[in-house]
Write a structure and sequence with these properties.
The structure is a single chain. The chain is α+β, with helices and mostly antiparallel strands. It contains one helix and two strands; from the N terminus they run H-E-E. Strands 1-2 form a two-stranded antiparallel sheet. Strand 1 and strand 2 form a beta hairpin.
């Protein structure tokens, strides 16, 4: 092998490695953001479930957005004096 072939191979490997690293990093950042959003939804849903388990007799109704996703819980309360 001559020197030019070795240099071209090394440059190709380095450039290929940088491209691979960059694409992987972009995917990692995107996946992390999506995971954070999903974990927030799961935590909120868990809180709603725990509330309903703690107060099973409470009159409740789920609030939903336009896509049908649960966004909250409406609790009917009464007070008497």
């Amino acid at each position: 092998m001559d020197t030019q072939t070795i240099i071209a191979t090394v440059i190709g490997v380095v450039i290929g490695g940088l491209i691979t690293w960059f694409v992987s990093w972009k995917y990692y950042v995107k996946a992390g953001k999506e995971l954070m959003a999903e974990s927030k939804k799961l935590k909120e849903t868990s809180d709603l479930i725990l509330y309903k388990l703690q107060y099973p007799d409470a009159k409740t109704e789920l609030k939903r957005n336009e896509q049908g996703e649960v966004t909250g819980l409406t609790v009917e309360m009464r007070a008497e004096l």
